[in-house]
Design brief:
Radius of gyration: 18 Å
Structural class: alpha/beta
Number of strands: 9
Strand order of the largest sheet: 1-2-3-4-5-6-7
Distance between the termini: 25 Å
CATH class: Alpha Beta
CATH superfamily: Metal-dependent hydrolases
CATH architecture: Alpha-Beta Barrel
CATH topology: TIM Barrel
Oligomer: single chain
Bound molecules: zinc ion
Order of helices and strands: EHEHEHEHEHEHEHEE
Largest sheet: 7 strands, parallel
Length: 280
């Protein structure tokens, strides 16, 4: 483990952060090979990367953007082979687990069955409704956005109460279409943050806004401030779906984190807080 976690990065690198812990490859819905993503992280001067492809406890609903169970061993072997090839970066075996309320036992079996080192948890469904699907924007469930947002944040709170993860991904992802929470939703967000604080897991500042209609990073500055006030640790992740996006928009993310009061981010290999560098 290098000690230079906050030191200068590689050629052309922005400010170093301990790692990018949310990177997708062609094993799920990304385009790059594991090796390409690892090399991109090395080029960005990152001491650590976690490959975190999508994995769901509820396969079979017709979508195919996760690692199929029958390919899990091959996925893991691929990530571990990359880790063995590289002494210039620590490669962690991760996943972006789908949180589905009521399927916690299935997810626990998954996490027990393989030696994942970083568990990023995402909520992409509310009671089975894929709110991020552009084809469903006219669905009646979007007729009352605050009701949908309330259900979403209650799901996030349940996920946090379940607690078996390291990083909560893109906490206000349901805002991707620009819907802002009304006053009635705010207590639900607070409750979810309280649960996250109690879980000990980290909040993620997700820089993947290029693929996002609202064009913002997640979560909002208000949520970042509220998380900081609760002492919730932070990680900054690219959620890259192609190798070139690893470590993307780091300067902007660091500035957002600093504006919210953060001065440290969490290194996930050993769960140690390290100083947040200055934005370049
Ligand atoms: Zn996600
Ligand atoms: Zn992701």
């Amino acid at each position: 483990m290098t000690a230079a976690v906050s030191g200068p990065g590689g050629p052309g690198a922005g400010p170093a952060l301990p790692g990018d812990y949310h990177v997708h490859t062609a094993w799920s819905d990304g385009t790059g090979a594991v090796e390409d993503c690892v090399r991109a992280a090395v080029a960005a001067g990152l001491p650590e990367i976690a490959i975190a492809d999508h994995i769901t406890p509820s396969p079979g609903s017709g979508e195919d953007w996760w690692v199929p169970l029958e390919r899990m061993d091959a996925y893991i072997e691929d990530v571990r082979a990359a880790a063995a090839r590289h002494d210039d970066i620590r490669v962690l075996l991760g996943l972006e687990a789908e949180y589905v309320a009521g399927k916690e036992a299935d997810l626990e079996r998954l996490l027990d069955g393989w030696p994942f080192e970083v568990v990023v948890l995402g909520v992409h469904l509310v009671d089975g409704f894929a709110f991020d699907d552009p084809a469903l924007r006219a669905d009646p469930r979007w007729g009352d956005p605050d009701a949908l947002l309330t259900a979403y944040y209650r799901t996030v709170r349940r996920a946090a109460e379940w607690g078996r993860f390291d990083v909560l991904a893109h906490m206000d992802w349901i805002g991707l279409w620009g819907d802002r929470p009304g006053p009635g939703v705010l207590p639900e967000i607070d409750a979810a943050l309280d649960a996250l604080a109690a879980s000990g897991a980290a909040l993620e500042l997700n820089t993947d806004r290029v693929s996002d209609p609202a064009g913002v990073m997640y979560p909002s500055p208000a949520i970042l401030r509220a998380a900081r006030a609760r002492g919730i640790p932070l990680v900054i992740d690219s959620d890259a779906h192609q190798a070139e996006h690893v470590g993307r928009l780091w300067d902007e993310a660091i500035a957002l984190a600093r504006a919210a009061g953060y001065r440290e981010t969490l290194r996930l290999s050993d769960h140690v807080l390290v100083p947040l560098p200055d934005a370049g």
